[in-house]
């Protein structure tokens, strides 16, 4: 029986997983971080790499080490109903509701839009662009058996070559040293904490939980069936792909910091990348950037449609076929994409601030389960505390006008005075620790006959 992938197969899966992870946000956020952090780029990158690389790596490892057959199987270790609710919420968030539409609008905003003739109707252009984009993504997604070939062997290498040209040119011809640029905003006082929050925005911790099902399925199709061997190869692919992401994050952030030497501070990471492309490649810069972002986002949307469709087929067998779900998710993505990038980001941030702590705690309790015998009581206690406290982070992240209208701004201000780290966006940490400690206390007090694995649902 086959228990180990060849190096060629491992590299292909690594390339595929990297391609699924690395989308629009993975380019924009590190570029903007670099420009804003300036001389504080390295502590900011440390925080960014923890949540943008370390946590996604741990989610893939959690799926492999626990032998879970996808996110639903992993999350049901905390409870059957929680498993279904969280799995649906996560897939819809990183799929058709937020991440996929963002991946459609970003290449339009920072690539195709710059190539439009003067006076062109931008809304109509977005409609036509998103229609063509989603038609291509759906064509690939309706052939899930070929995802290793399309993403791992074709789209990702093309993307890396084009991005490599831009980064190599920018980093070998710097306009000034990074240390000469003063940090701005939150990067002045707390670059590490701001970097941690920036890593949230990539959505990769959520994506790691979602894409695990694709990696496991591909490894099985390559002839590995033993659960232990699947776990080992899944973890290996996760480590390699996340390490590659980390290297590119550092290079993109350094290029972003260097842009301060020849341009004014930009409003977002897309504008930073546009500035870099235009500076080094003049008129061809817009076209180069358009290709980079297009390939980055296309492969990610393919992965999102594929993973969402496969997950819902397994969660609700007999309700809809894979093709029906793929078409439905593609249609929803197309419709929401035409709302525009700014609106998508505005609505997605509060949801991310609520889901991220839950995903992090689920990953940590899964990885550390052997320390407490994988006891569901401990897991449920910690997860309950995080779920309740993450609602506060959701409220805090709502637009200021919404808080004012609903009279929640005073409540948010009060929480900032009583809940540690709430003002910095990490109000869930102390409740999570308390929930974990409470779970251990209840475990010790519980009659011994109720073993960890036999706790009633």
From TrEMBL:
Protein's UniProt keywords contain Lipid biosynthesis: no
Assigned GO CC terms: plasma membrane
Transmembrane intervals: 12-33, 45-66, 78-99, 124-142, 154-171, 205-223, 235-257, 287-313, 325-349, 355-373, 385-405, 425-445
Domain of life of the source: Bacteria
Subcellular location: Cell membrane
Keywords on record: Amino-acid transport, Cell membrane, Membrane, Transmembrane, Transmembrane helix, Transport
Coiled-coil intervals, chain numbering: none
InterPro entries: Brnchd-chn_aa_trnsp_Livcs
Amino-acid biosynthesis is among the record's keywords: no
Lipid bilayer topology: Multi-pass membrane protein
GO biological process, one term: L-leucine transport
One function term, GO molecular function aspect: L-isoleucine transmembrane transporter activity
A Pfam family per the record: Branch_AA_trans
Its job: Component of the transport system for branched-chain amino acids.
PANTHER family, sorted: BRANCHED-CHAIN AMINO ACID PERMEASE BRNQ (PTHR30588:SF0), BRANCHED-CHAIN AMINO ACID TRANSPORT SYSTEM 2 CARRIER PROTEIN (PTHR30588)
Membership in a protein family: Belongs to the branched chain amino acid transporter family.
Protein name, entry field: Branched-chain amino acid transport system carrier protein
Source organism (scientific name): Selenomonas caprae
Encoding gene per record: brnQ
